[in-house]
Amino acid sequence: MAIKGKKGVFFTLIAVLVVSVLIIAFSSNENFTSKNRVPTISSRVKTSSNFVRNLEQSYIKASLQTSSHNALNSILLYIERNRNFLENEKELNDTFKEVLINGSIKGLKLYEGYGISLMNGNTFEYRLNRIEQASKNFFNLRTDFKKEDIEVDIFQTNDTGPWYIGINLTLEYSVDADVAYWNRTKTFTIFLDLRDFNDPLFLVNPTSPAHRKINATPFNSTEWNVDTLRIHANSGTYMYEPNASSYLFRFFNSTEFSECCGIESFVNETLCKKVEDKSYVDFCFWSDACDSGTMYGEKLYNITGITNETYPFKLDAYHVARYNVLNEAVNVTAWGSFS
Question: Domain boundary at 180, 196, 212, which?
Fold first, then answer.
């Protein structure tokens, strides 16, 4: 869903920018002509410098935050409606950049091609155009963003951890005040909280898309037992797991481990379709990543207190130990022997 009040956010930021610059300009100790109170060259430079500082510290980053949020949600809607994952990490990064800047995928506007309207008036290019116009109208400054040369990288690292994603955007721009000129290339970094976003695995793999937000479990690694596992599985929360894939890897259905940022949840009773030959850890359930011959063990286990006729919950050996339910693990059964 789109961030609400995007126009209000834009005009509020512009208003703050205008007021802050004018205060500095007209509270300056510099001399003014007695007739027209025209700022001296020094005051003009100071005013313009303050504009550049506010541009970098507030508006560009706020615009990137809002546009990135809507871009990621737009990609999730695109995946849901196409019922297909992206191909790989490169396609994820390329797609995110195109949606963020232009509001399109493979050259086709999201609204026209897919009925996705989140980027209407929300693209980063649109916001840069507005700041260029505002700088001219309010300050008589010529601001020029090199939109065709923008570089974008979406990432998860130790800096983000498992519960955030980062966006790096490198932008070249210039500001011409006649009496002074700035030409800069700067990288802006923002972080998005994953609690605002759905899990791509659950949008594609079930028979019908399931909207599951990335909410971290309230339990830490010392609190696992059959009771906390049952709550965790039923509530659809996520746990950090270094032997699982990161949130971003889920966009292209990769099961590659992410030591910094791996997460996992469980397939609940509504979605399980009474499958009995899979571990119910989400990425295990919809792939062969945890099947026989992997590090997860050769057997599947029912868990007393969770497994029942309508919810044939199973765990592989690795996760039995991980969730501290060794005493409840029963009916050891070899992979592939279920009817």
Answer: 196
